[in-house]
Amino acid sequence: MRARLFSLLFAGFVAAASAEVSAGQAYLPMGQARGIAVVDTQRDAVVGHLPGVPSGHGLALSPDGGLLVAASLAAGATMEAGEPEHAAHHGGKAAARESGGGGVVTLIRAATGAVVARIAIPGPSHHVAITPDGRYAVATLMRDGGVAVIDLRERRLARVVPTGVAPNYAVPAADSRTVYVSNSGSATVSVVDVVTGRVRDSVTVDAGPEHMVLSGDGERLYVNAAGAGAVTVVALPEGRVVRSLETGRDPHGIALGRSGRRLFVALTGEDRLLAIDLRDGSRTSRVLAPMPYHLARVPGNGRLYVSSRGESRVWVVDGRDLGVSASIQTSAVVHQMAMSAEAGQ
């Protein structure tokens, strides 16, 4: 009787917590903490923790908000006993063990934190993206020179596409088959067709391309070039470099404002957050210390979440004046953040 009463109370608590954060949620992967912090973006407060993500660095949320895709940065990850039945049916244990230095992508129900599947991929992955139709996830394989394309409907590795040296970041286009991949060791951006597995084009950009963001109309791709201290602007679909915006040392996280008129760049090497007006080129910046790192815009309210590479925290920044309104304490350093589509609205 006591056990049943406890179960009912616990279920009620979980339901209440889910309702409490449904207005807007951010998911913050914390590699060293082996989990994901769930943040209520209305209150800028941690309200939950999703465990079971080894060395989680890359993270993406499906367009319907139901599924999280988490990529492991550590090599040699193996499937554990008690994995979901689907993974066992597709040989997940054998594939991970035989690869030796393979990696794992974890699929998680966002509402409950339940692990749906673990999918073995050839190696460690830096970042991950999901196509707008929710069909494919793309994980960059920095060691293996390509991307792993995962079929989320069938929950399996569909194909591996070679792209270049040290692929870092992936950004999908609106057509749900084109994905742009930055290759930091090749100074290129690959244009990948995830359905056919073909690289349609390769664009040479400034040195050390890493994080990227695509304009709302899909006509401009902004590429952080960490090796050049700049943002390369690529015109699409022709794949032509039209501009290089000097930023400062070690640009890392990047995001566009709600209107698409301002570009925000986290300068890890200068302890600064930079905002560039794309209409007239004017700039504002503020000190954020130590080491501003990953950057994400909270949809609907003009705020930014900026993680620190040197501390376990995320700053909440007003996109209008770069003022810091809050600091969210986390269990470990936060990497690629994922926002629910309705967050902050």
Describe, in plain words, how this protein is organized in 3D.
With about 350 residues, the protein is mostly beta strands. About 10% of the residues lie in helices and about 50% in strands. The protein has a four-stranded antiparallel β-sheet with strand order 3-2-1-28, covered by helices on one side. It has a four-stranded antiparallel β-sheet with strand order 4-5-6-7. Strand 21 and strand 22 (about 270-275) form a beta hairpin. The longest helix is centred in the first third of the chain and has 20 residues, at about 1-20. The radius of gyration is 20 Å and the shape is globular.
Low-confidence stretches: 1-22, 78-99
Shape: globular
Number of helices: 3
Radius of gyration: 20 Å
What's the count of strands?
Answer: 28
Share of β-strand residues: over 45%
* Overall mean confidence score, pLDDT: 88
**Classification by helices and strands:** mainly beta
Q: Termini separation (Å)? A: 42 Å
Placed side by side, the strands forming the largest sheet appear as 3-2-1-28
Tell me roughly what share of residues is in helical segments. under 10%
